[in-house]
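Exercise 7b. Backbone tokens:
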């Protein structure tokens, strides 16, 4: 996989002008969802760089990360004259960059694309590293491809219109990056004033966080080994997210990851001795900011069934990424069904359900 250019922008207009120049193309397309079309596209259009661009707009959020939406994007590209040499700009959160990235990766076997992430989650995580895809058969990201954007342009000014839920959703992936990197970064994240955001300080934290991801992706772009660190909290988190989607009470991805981290830190403590006090502090932060995902013990089998679809699994065993300590990563850890049920008991007890 080619190395991806990730820029923390001082001027989005200048960076976008340069990124477009680096991708010679015959026709330009810009993909938004219904919210980023209204909130983010106008400032980009003011630059004049998109004057000849064809606009494609899709429904917002994960309920639209589907085959039907993907087909609608292929259709718009196909009927509006896209060729193998066209360029797509994805302007939005992780739903837009995942689905738009996959549309670009597959249309005429692959066209160039640029990501301009507009949510915190997409800036620190989704827009970077080349994982693209859609949900399918009730499972998260079941269909997709590794296909990096040519450039990722991060403009943190877009964060000013983000609501608190989506701020905390992205913050969960940042907390994950803290846990898998080093204690100083983890402490900084636990102490950041999330109730009165200093956007200059946030920009710096975003830069640090995306660097954690870039460093790992550079070592292992196709997730054969260390990239599994980026999946901390996701074996359980994706199971929560899939169950919530099936029950038509969708939860934001980052919230599911935060609750998944509660479970997987417990498993880390149990299996590889993650320090109890650091587990307690992390769980307290999550309890204070993310509320609780409720389910009773009758749902354990269904959650277990979702976990059997995790992409890290091999030959019938469920695979977790665990931590011996902050930054001390143990990939390819397995747990049997009884231990997984014990972990779910712990989650319910410590979250007070
Ligand atoms: N590819 C990866 O490596 C990767 C990593 C993490 C998450 N993901 C995926 O990303 C998706 C979640 O991404 P997300 O959290 O960005 O959700 P999202 O894209 O659904 O965006 C959340 C909401 O915020 C709105 N929004 C976007 N930008 C805004 C802005 N600047 N101001 C106000 N509102 C804005 C959107 O329209 C949407 O309603 C999930 O599908 C998840 O699986 C992928
Ligand atoms: O980039 C990665 O690698 C990650 O695992 C990042 C995750 O935060 C992200 O949610 C990713 O989409 C999960 O991928 P999946 O392979 O478990 O579907
Ligand atoms: Zn994630």
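Sequence design result:
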């Amino acid at each position: 996989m080619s190395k991806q250019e990730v820029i923390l922008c001082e001027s989005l207009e200048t960076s976008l002008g340069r990124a477009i120049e680096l991708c010679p193309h015959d026709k330009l397309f810009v993909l938004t969802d219904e919210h980023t079309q209204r909130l983010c596209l106008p400032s980009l259009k003011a630059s004049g760089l998109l004057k000849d661009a064809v606009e494609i707009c899709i429904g917002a959020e994960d309920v639209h990360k589907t085959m039907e939406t993907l087909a609608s994007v292929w259709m718009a590209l196909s009927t509006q004259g896209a060729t193998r040499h066209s360029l797509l700009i994805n302007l939005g959160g992780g739903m837009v960059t995942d689905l738009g990235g996959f549309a670009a990766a597959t249309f005429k076997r692959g066209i160039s694309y640029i990501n301009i992430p507009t949510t915190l989650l997409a800036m620190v995580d989704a827009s970077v590293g080349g994982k693209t895809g859609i949900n399918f058969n009730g499972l998260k990201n079941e269909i997709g491809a590794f296909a990096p954007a040519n450039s990722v342009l991060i403009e943190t000014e877009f964060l000013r219109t983000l609501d608190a839920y989506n701020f905390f959703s992205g913050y969960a992936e940042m907390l994950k990056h803290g846990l898998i990197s080093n204690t100083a970064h983890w402490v900084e994240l636990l102490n950041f004033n999330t109730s009165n955001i200093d956007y200059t300080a946030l920009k710096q934290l975003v830069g640090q966080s995306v660097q954690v991801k870039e460093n790992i992706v550079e070592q292992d772009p196709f997730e054969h080994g260390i990239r599994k660190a980026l999946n901390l909290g996701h074996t359980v988190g994706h199971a929560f997210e899939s169950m919530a989607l099936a029950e038509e009470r969708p939860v934001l991805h980052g919230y599911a990851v935060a609750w998944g981290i509660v479970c997987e830190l417990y498993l880390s403590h149990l299996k590889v001795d993650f320090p109890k006090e650091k587990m307690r502090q992390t769980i307290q932060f999550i309890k204070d900011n993310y509320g609780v995902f409720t389910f009773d013990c009758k749902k354990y089998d269904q959650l277990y069934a979702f976990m059997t679809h995790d992409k890290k699994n091999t030959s019938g065993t469920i695979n977790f990424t665990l931590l011996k300590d902050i930054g001390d990563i143990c990939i390819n850890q397995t747990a049997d069904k009884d231990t997984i049920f014990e972990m779910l008991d712990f989650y319910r007890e410590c979250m007070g359900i």
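Instructor comment: DSSP finds 14 helices and ten strands in the chain. The pocket of zinc ion (ligand 3) is lined by residues 125, 173, 234, 253, 257 (CB under 6 Å).
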